[in-house]
Amino acid sequence: MVQSENGIRVAVIGGSGYVGGELLRLLLPHPAVKEVRAFSESHAGEPLGEVHPSLLHLEGGSFEAPDPAGAASWADVLFFALPHGKSQEVMEEVLAVDPGLVIDLAADFRIHDQDLYRLYYGEHKAPAALEGFVYGLADVLGEGLRGRKRIAVPGCFATAALLAVHPLAAEGLLAGTPTVFAVTGSTGSGAKPKRTTHHPVRAHNFFGYSQAGHRHEAEAAEQVRAWSGDPAAGLRILTHSAPIVRGIHATLAAHLKEPLEDPASLFRKVYGGRPFVSILDSPPELSAVVGTNYAHIHALSREGGRVVVVDCAEDNLVKGAAGQAVQCMNLALGLPETQGISFGGLYPC
Hints:
Layout: E1 8-13, H1 18-27, E2 33-39, H2 48-51, H3 68-74, E3 77-80, H4 87-95, E4 101-104, H5 114-121, E5 134-135, H6 138-141, E6 150-152, H7 156-170, E7 179-184, H8 199-202, E8 207-209, H9 216-228, E9 236-241, E10 248-255, H10 263-271, E11 277-279, E12 295-302, E13 307-314, H11 318-333
Parallel strand pairs: 1-2, 1-3, 3-4, 4-6, 5-6, 7-9, 11-12
Antiparallel strand pairs: 7-10, 8-9, 10-13, 12-13
């Protein structure tokens, strides 16, 4: 894969949202990155630090007006951090210039089964562009991402749920559809204010949403089907909003075909050597991973080993979005996987 002589040139399309801001926070000081350009329709001409206060002390310049094809011609790595449905509108134009590495953080290119996609999102506007994209669950694929040129980063809920279910699905142990009870912070709703992110509503409140079927169930189902070999497999995700700013805590309950007395050993075997997944001896605390690219997992059996309960804690903006995207970049380009994203969190937070 072509890279600039003295470092990687990176473009971020849609850099004004929370995920875009996290991408810029990680990419601007990344040791392998030479130059970063950020594009935003709503904030063109504004300094990055005025839109994202966390960038005030980083030399990042200002947002530019959107130019996806021009950015793709210039950059070694092109990140899309646009709302769902927007990257598919310009992807064919972008791919026509044969860019180096394209990493999309929306749901546009995560799902290859068009019937499944249509069920949750409607008609796809650029189905032909799906062919080259791989689902970038970095902690499962690892070196399998090396050399890939088109990566779709998993959703935040899907990342937590799939990390919790992957060892069980890959071993063919699942009986029926597992359920994940998942809680997220207000940043999961995006930067644009709305009633459910308004502080008086959110601060001391707790509520469920998308209970009839969260859209991340589509990508999760496609992955579970591939791992288990069961074309009818799925994953039920019950999503909730909590009075916190960031983070996801997900609890999986799965019935098994045969008893598994020590699921922790299975999880340690599957994730052994994966730098950003830690298997704990007790249930994880969300505050331990906030702001980091780490996922903390705890697994136990109950009911004679016929049921396994798995907790997974992650940061929705880092592990569930921008951090995993940079991890995918590192793996695809053959860089050290942990480069630029191995920092610890803030505790207490």
